[in-house]
Amino acid sequence: MKIKIFFLLFIFTAFSISAQIKGVVKDSITGQPIPYVSIWVQNENYGSTSEENGAFSINVSEKSKNLIFSALGYEKKTVKIADSNLVNLVQTTYQLEEIIISKRKETREIEIGQTENAILEAFDNGPRIDTKFFPYLESYKKTRFIKKITIFTDSKIDNASIKIHFYKVDSNGFPTDEILDKNFIVSVDKGVNKTAFNVTKFNLKMPKEGLFIGFEKLIIENNKLEKTFLDKNTNTLQTKKTYYPFVLYNYVEKEYLYTFSGGKWSRQTNENEQNSTKKIMIYEPAINLILTN
Predict the structure, then answer these.
(1) Smallest Cα–Cα separation from 175: which of 257, 113, 75, 69?
(2) Nearest by Cα to 21 from 81, 87, 71, 86
(3) Residue 126: which domain range?
(4) pLDDT digit string (tens) for 201-243?
(5) Contact 216/162 with Cβ under 8 angstroms?
(6) 95, 111, 124, 151: which one has the fewest Cβ atoms less than 10 Å from its Cβ?
(7) Which one is predicted more confidently, 264 or 275?
């Protein structure tokens, strides 16, 4: 397997001339801090993540913009930057569905999502959610349980963590509601690795409509690596911040690519035509699923 490592560090260097906004996110009822909240600058391609204590900071170029706060189990909230020092989120009221626990045999496993002649490349995807679509095939009928999710990563620090998302598919083929009702945060080791995470506790089955799996980089202190260097142009010391891990991508031929950023989904198709069926070459997260019976 050939691995190329490229770094696109556009998100943490693009706003050197900006104001840093700090705040904290809490539960509106309990007053407890909410960790790992996704924070997006509305309609922009940059954002942040709340720490375990609910605190967050974000560099903004214009204080007139809005921030979007999103966390599983809570209603999404849009707040003016000037009013974001304390953000209270309201818990979502769920209509609980009947859960049927089926007996598993786990005598058979298949891995889906592999790419032939995979060429893996690493990108700093910034604060956005990149997805991979897994269609349902009749051949999965006898192995519909999702046992594990595997993901290729590159990290220069140990225990770097990322957030994994599972999305249903709407009638137009877009990612829609999240399947889980709580954050699924996973950690990976230092180096270039393929790591498998067991998800049997969620009792997930492969939906006949298929599903999207997405990952989200967490812009938190535990994931940060700082390096100081001399800027030869200004002859001053500069600090570069990099957030790990980097998820590896495959360069594949697909009809579309879905990305969530700035508080909304975007769909990339051939020549930006929404109804185009002609395939394009895209970078897709190197994520696979292991199914069992």
Answers:
(1) 257
(2) 81
(3) 109-292
(4) 999 999 999 999 999 999 999 999 999 888 888 888 888 889 9
(5) yes
(6) 95
(7) 264
* Alpha helical stretches, state H, 84-238: none
Kindly state whether residues 120 and 168 are assigned to the same domain: yes
Residue 95 covered by a domain: no
30 shares its domain with 85: yes
Of the candidates 170, 156, 147, 122, the one whose C-alpha atom is nearest the C-alpha of residue 226 is: 156
Task: Tell me the torsion sign for CA atoms 189, 193, 198, 202.
Answer: positive
197 contact partners, CB below 8 Å, separation of at least 6 = 148, 149, 150, 151, 164, 186
The CATH number of whichever domain residue 50 belongs to comes to: 2.60.40.1120
- Which H, E and C letters describe 195-235, residue by residue? EEEECHHHCCECCCCCEEEEEEECCCHHHEEEEEEEECCCC
120 plus 76 within the same structural domain: no
Q: How many domains does the chain have?
A: 2
pLDDT tens digits for range 160-181: 999 999 999 999 899 999 999 8
Looking at the structure, tell me whether residues 287 and 227 fall in a common domain. yes
**For the chain, how many residues are written?**
293
